[in-house]
Amino acid sequence: KNEVEQSPQNLTAQEGEFITINCSYSVGISALHWLQQHPGGGIVSLFMLSSGKKKHGRLIATINIQEKHSSLHITASHPRDSAVYICAVKKKSSGDKLTFGTGTRLAVRP
Amino acid sequence: DAGVIQSPRHEVTEMGQEVTLRCKPISGHDYLFWYRQTMMRGLELLIYFNNNVPIDDSGMPEDRFSAKMPNASFSTLKIQPSEPRDSAVYFCASSLGGRTPYEQYFGPGTRLTVT
Predict the structure, then answer these.
(1) Are residues A100 and B44, on separate chains, in Cβ contact within 8 Å?
(2) DSSP code, position A9
(3) Interval A59-93: pLDDT, tens
(4) From B31's CA, which of B3, B18, B54, B102 has a CA 20 to 30 Å away?
């Protein structure tokens, strides 16, 4: 079993829909990252969380440390949000290494 | 800042050849990470440096892979000899470390094809 699990693996949405991507982990962490990888391949860091909630534009990330769970929400989704979203955790036992989930491939149709 | 710079962006080589990938981290960042991404295994950490010193190389697949960071503004990842299974996208990332975890900033990646 992977230490970082994401769901769903694939997601198709209509433009304007509210989207939720989930990340569960089974280890103690010091931080959790949400990354976005566009079809061109570049990786962008969206959020880094250690508690609570962060918001940037139409993106919201939440984390529940007790439940070992994080969610990434996209409000008013747009085709340009189509990308792979990757959850990664910094384990307390592993210093500054990131352990990655397998990603959620999102397609937003116009 | 120009962000993390990687070169080359694409590399095609024949099996058995030496391949050198290069990375320039963001100025002032003291952590540098090398990752590999494949369809089968996703993103994997190969090695990371702190203040130019390798801290964890447990992800380096085998002795054919080596990485160096001779100064704070330059790192190389070398594969010698290369094999077709090394075909992947190799990302370099940098961050500002310390007691509080900091975000990692990724370079555009080098797409390596070994034929």
Answers:
(1) yes
(2) S
(3) 999 999 999 999 999 999 999 999 999 999 988 88
(4) B18
Does any CB of chain B come closer than 8 Å to the CB of residue A86? Answer: yes
**Which of A4, A32, A96 would you mutate first to test chain B, the one with the most B CBs within 10 A?**
A96
B93-105 pLDDT per residue, tens? 999 876 556 788 9
CB contact under 8 Å between B101 and A48, yes or no, is yes
Give the amino acid at A77.
S
A39: left (phi over 0), alpha (psi -120 to 50) or beta: alpha
Distance CA B13, CA B7 (A): 15
Q: Is A49 left (phi over 0), alpha (psi -120 to 50) or beta?
A: beta
C-alpha span between B93 and A32 (Å, rounded): 16
